[in-house]
Amino acid sequence: MFERNKDKGKTPERPAPAPAPAAAPEPATPAPSPSQYEQLSTPRSAAVIGPSIKIKGEVSGDEDLVIRGTVEGSIDLAAHEVTVGESGKVKADIKGRTVIVNGQVTGDITGGEKVIIAKTGHVRGNIVAPRMTLEDGAVFKGSIDMDPGEKSAAKPAPAAAPAAKPAPAPANSAPGLDVKSG
Prior knowledge:
By secondary structure, the chain is an alpha/beta fold. The protein is 28% helix and 38% strand. The protein has helices spanning 2-13, 19-23, 25-28, 148-154, 156-164, 168-181, and strands at 46-49, 54-60, 64-67, 70-84, 89-101, 104-106, 109-117, 122-124, 127-128, 131-134, 139-141, 144-145.
């Protein structure tokens, strides 16, 4: 019987260490960020261009990008998120699924889903995106084109339909005049 008590004493000791590792990863998961828009919307990691890095040329790839340094040229990440941090300075055309600007951008921005210019953002260039957010305090000089594909496709169809309706209207008016004059 004494052996059973020894086994029972050992059994509770084994499960006690198991919950401790499960609880440890939870506090490490949430990481505070300086800006609500610098935090990525996806759980995957992003490439970061640090504040002391300067790039001249074409930037392309298959992952999200955070720019805190200087980039001149072009940025083509059409299927991913591009974030320009508060210390970021970009003189380039940017293509991304989502483009978030907290720093300075000189160039055209094309967003597949949306473009956000935060209150600390400065943009000089044209923006093409289906959705656009311009926060109070942001600086923007350029034009915004939201969903240009639907606008050009929708204009010819309504124009053709009204043109067909007015043509029969004058034909109906002419017989009415004949009846009155006759």
